[in-house]
Amino acid sequence: MSDLLGYTAATLTTLAFVPQALHSWSSRDLSGVSLGMYSLFTLGVALWLLYGLSLKAWPIVLANAITLCLASLVLVLKWQHRNQPAASK
Fold this sequence. Notes:
By secondary structure, the chain is mainly α. It is built from four helices and no strands.
């Protein structure tokens, strides 16, 4: 039962990042994304992944591996476009 709870939480929290990653990728408008916040967040996700690996807690590992990919995508895009003005609407 606890694994089911873990996988459900992992699925929901990981899916929450998909819209941001898709929007960032398609629009390249990252004006509303904080470089500092996403840097800290991505580091935190990497640490959660390492923590999950150390415990062999697969819901934590799976969720954070996927979230790390999505957050890293947004972070790289933000870094690449950090000096560009916001897209005109």
